[in-house]
Structures are given as C-alpha cells and as structure tokens.
Specification:
- By secondary structure, this protein is α+β, with helices and mostly antiparallel strands.
- It has 2 domains: 51 residues, no CATH class; 70 residues, Beta-lactamase Inhibitory Protein, Chain:B, domain 1 (2-Layer Sandwich).
- 48% of the residues lie in helices and 17% in strands.
- The protein has 4 helices and 4 strands, in the order ααααββββ.
- Helix 1 packs antiparallel against helix 2 and helix 2 packs across helix 4.
- The chain is elongated, with a radius of gyration of 20 Å.
Length: 137
C-alpha cells in the first residue's frame, strides 16, 4: 500500500478540521485555497512534462548512457519522463504490473526501466557491440 495515497488526503482533511476549530469558516477557506493551489501546481507540472514529451518520438532519449547514470530506484514515471522529455516505448502489456518501458538513443543503446506501482524498481543499460568487439559493461 502506498503511504502517500492515504496520508495526503488524511492530512488535508485534518488541516481543514484544525483550521475550522481555530479560525472558523475563514480558516477553512484559507486552507482549502492552499490545497487547491497545491493540486494546481502538481497538475501544471504534469501537463508541462507531457507537453514537452509530445514533441519527441516515443522511446527516444539523447543519450542512454547519461539516462542510466541519472536514474535512481524509487523515482516515479513522471520524473523519468521529465528527464528524457519523451514517453517510453512500452515493452509490457497495457495495465499489467510491472510496467516496462524502453528509451533508445541514436547509437541503438537503450535503457529498459521496470516500474512497480509507478515507481522505478529496476533499470538496465544495453549497449550494442562496436566493430565486432564485445559490449562494454
């Protein structure tokens, strides 16, 4: 169970209740305005990330090696899309956990990312062999 899915709504309700107890309806209006502003900021960030990703080919990244170096387990899919500025090419079936996406660069190197519950669980870099040499580790 994702802790944030429960904690954030409970904290919002508690803040509204505390504001009502301390300041009456004026406090409720102030806290509700703050909560709506917070939700709008998150929505605006999501729309900005998706608008930038819409301008690039699906599954493309400038450098798969640099993406691999920047990735850390636990980041969410929206953060990875913001880093790559492109949607990942799905490698798994739709609506099946874990979700697997791939980003490929111009040299055909690619990073395959596995997301469980929207969070990065595992990522792997693949680099093709050059001139008959084995791939670099």
């Amino acid at each position: 169970m994702n802790f944030q899915k429960i904690f954030i709504p409970v904290a919002g309700v508690a803040a509204v209740a505390l504001a009502y107890r301390q300041y009456g309806w004026l406090g409720v209006v102030a806290v509700a305005t703050g909560l709506v502003m917070w939700m709008l900021l998150h929505f605006t960030r999501m729309m900005t990330v998706l608008k930038r990703a819409a301008d690039r080919p699906i599954g493309y990244v400038g450098s798969a090696v640099m993406l691999n170096a920047k990735l850390k387990p636990g980041v969410n899919l929206m953060h990875v899309i913001a880093m790559t500025r492109a949607l990942g090419k799905p490698q798994s079936e739709k609506d099946v956990q874990p979700e697997v996406f791939r980003w490929t660069d111009g040299t055909q190197s690619h990073v395959t990312c596995t997301f469980v519950g929207g969070k990065l669980a595992h990522h792997e870099l693949f680099r093709p062999a050059e001139n008959g040499l084995p791939p670099a580790p």
